[in-house]
Amino acid sequence: MILELKDVHAGYGSLSVIRGVSLTVEPGQIVTILGPNGAGKTTLLKSLSGLIRPTGGSVILSGTDITRLPAHRRARQGLLHVPEGRGIFDDLTVEDNLRLGGQRLDRSTQDRRADEMYEMFPVLSERRRSRAGLLSGGQQQILAVARGLMSRPKLLMIDEPTMGLAPIMVSEIIASLQGVLDSGTSILLAEQNAAVATRVATTVQVLSNGELSEHSADTGDADAIFDAYLA
Ligand code: ATP
């Protein structure tokens, strides 16, 4: 098991947003948290990456309880968050953005990993000397994922990567996620688009009112997922 959540609670002050979420991510899986705007997807991911502290429950990464670790130590243990809005530095080149993802590595390892990323995502190779701010939205999303992979995390948590993208770019992002799995990193994805969720995920969990729906299903059962989401 890569990630295990046991009865996680989280919120802001007296506002309780996540109310007892339990789930697991196995090696090689993409697990999608599907929910509408405001369902608490981002809050859940933040509580896992340590940007906010869970108010209850536990978070276990590869057998280690990380519930009380600060964010930077969770990242070092291999739990990496690609936030909504991507967090790309517009004024830096593609290459420098990638290097930031590997800043704890020595220079030659950085070079090697960056080359691996260019091989995995040729669109970045073509643009390596461009300012990241000049890339399209979809290319920036791929850069954000590649930057996250520079440290070879065990699990990448990605928040709404297809938001606002044209359908052709959505397909490209989905293909890039498959590349991430092939490189040995599992994925926890937050998504509000049910069609994307069922296309990409191994398992879809529907989040509503801070809880996962009982109707969550393997992606083979797309009808059940749509029913749960629209209920
Ligand atoms: P979106 O698709 O808009 O990102 P989401 O499912 O990720 O939606 P969250 O951003 O986790 O939802 O928000 C869940 C609830 O928590 C909302 O009611 C929101 O208003 C509230 N919330 C989010 N961030 C904060 C904050 N910093 N302080 C107080 N309340 C917040």
Automatic annotation (TrEMBL):
Annotated ABC transporter domain residues: 3-231
CDD domains, per the entry: ABC_TM1139_LivF_branched (cd03224)
GO biological process: L-amino acid transport
KW Nucleotide-binding (keyword) present: yes
Keywords: Amino-acid transport, ATP-binding, Nucleotide-binding, Transport
Pfam families: ABC_tran
InterPro entries from the UniProt entry: AAA+_ATPase, ABC_transporter-like_ATP-bd, BCAA_Transport_ATP-bd_LivF, P-loop_NTPase
Example of a GO MF term: ATP binding
Protein family membership: Belongs to the ABC transporter superfamily.
Protein name: Amino acid/amide ABC transporter ATP-binding protein 2, HAAT family
Organism: Thermomonospora echinospora
Highest classification ranks of the organism: Bacteria, Bacillati, Actinomycetota, Actinomycetes, Streptosporangiales
